[in-house]
Amino acid sequence: MPDEQETQLIEQGRWEEPDDKPPEPPELKDILFTQQVLNLNLAEYLEDTELSKIGEQVHLDYEIDKRSCAEWWVRTEPAIDLAMLTLEKKDEDWRAAVKFPLLTVAALQFAARAFPNIVKGKDIVKGKIIGKDVLLTSKGEEIQGGKTTIKNRISEHMSWQLSEQMEEWVEDLDKGLLCLPIVGEEWKKTYFCPVLKRNMSVRVPSSNMVINYWAKSPDTASRLTEKIDWYPNEIEEKKRSGYILDVDIPVDGGVGDKKDSMDEDAPVRFLEQHRWLDLDKDGYKESYVVTIHKSSKKVVRIYHRYDLKNVERGEDGRVARIKPVSYYTQTVFYHSPDGGSRGMGLGNLMRPINESINKILNNLIDSGTLNSNPCGFIGKMIGHDRKFGGQILLKLGEWFKTNFTGDDLRKAIVPLPTKEPSNVLYLLLGMLIDAGKQLGISELLSGESPGANTQPTTILALIEQGLKVFSAVYLRIHRGLKSEFKKLYRLNSIYLDEKEYFTVLDNQKAIGKIDYNIEGIDVIPVSNPNEISDMQKMLRAETLKTLLGQGFKDQAIRKRYLELIAEMTGIENVQEFMLTDEDLKRIPPEIQLEMNKFELEKKKFEWEKFTGLYDNLKKQAMAAKAYAEAEAAELGPQLDEYKSRLDRELKEIEAFMKFELETMKAKKEANG
Fold it and tell me: What is the reported pLDDT for 446?
């Protein structure tokens, strides 16, 4: 029944029927580059015909990029089989099919050295201040050292994220460092997961990444495609949450070699392509992420791939330039010599040598097996009561009767001519193994002893020389980590809560989104690409130790020394070992006196050591002088030569004495 007001309007002829139709949805061009585009699946705003065209184009471009990498994959796939020591089918049961683990050992050694250099306890990320260490407040006030406080907070928070919150990160890093030298490249995908409500930085196998081989880099490539497998239940979850379109998706029955028509829970293959599309039809393509079902080419999701602040407009208001958001980080072991975008690794470099080693090793084993198990031809009458051509097996102490005499028996048995394993092949095998180790890793770096008489300086020089090749690889890993951390930094500036709590060494700390939106702060890996081995770290630590008592800050030197030792031994929180000023004040006077006495005895020992060295040098000089005088008495022309040599030695002694006295004087002044 109409109410009184409605009745009056009807009587006056001014009544209008209400419009029950829902409001018209906004057009796609009206929501692009606005806040409305955030978290939207833009595929919902496109017609089926338009989606069909996009799906066909995505699949076509994927096939083009895949074909461009076909030759690279032909080179890389055998290296993976070689590293996995995959058994091959033998021609005969007795033939060997052994694979020498040259490539596998080199990859294991590389990963074992790289991992502890990247993950140093709880420290993974460290902050870096750009410009002056001055923080401007909202009121325009300057806080000296304010950036340092925020920098340290960001370092601790991001290290906690990678090691604790993002549980997959350390595991993926471990896998990636092992696969990197074999395949030649590693991929990481850094993004915010709307399901888990946190950042993700996951490893993507090279076999699942497709990029045009002749692209300059992943950041400038016109498109990148990732092959993604979702289980049927995952697909249903994504449909119900609106993450993908609710369309019929045929079941593939598995992916590749994992296909099984009977498996209802087999994964379904999708293609996620990061590309450029002109959805608003203005003649300029924008950056989007398009996801399609591979076999049916149906588009299930289109998502924007840009930050609104990075959309530049011209004077006429149209979009002039868009800086796309990069999700992927590629790290290469070696760059391809032909200029391609895919990396090269030890698998490409060592495969020919490793395969040759395998052939020679199997030939030597086959030769030894054939020589140890002779075969040949035997007369029919010898084994008349046995099957012709079979084996005649004799037990220990058993004699087999035949109708042949000794000489006739010898003539009736003709063994197949065989030779012992070739010594030439054996020498060649050793040469190839040594050549392969030079490409992979030397015996010294693998932990083998260099010999009892090898000088320490020689060992250090050999280690440095052996790591020269890998130093450049570690530098590329360092750059890749830096790029990955910057992506994570950006995500924190967008998705982090206004205040988030995290725990570091049982201490609860807080950080907010605003900390990641302060200009002048950058993040870099805590790893040092110039420090690869523990021996190098020990050398740096010992160098620092020699600076004690030289007029520098001894407390700071001891702290850095302990930090280097902690990196090698894994000891955490070394600051607890340091004596503070308050600790020094609490030392009882009698203990302080004993410490001073010990220091005095130490200086006395150093002085006696110095004077003894001086006396020894003086005696050597006098002996040289006496010898020169004796020689001069018999061979006058040699006198000038000995005199000049004596003068040089005396000058060296004098210079040495002067240097030592100045050093001791400086130590005395520094210690009061």
Answer: 45
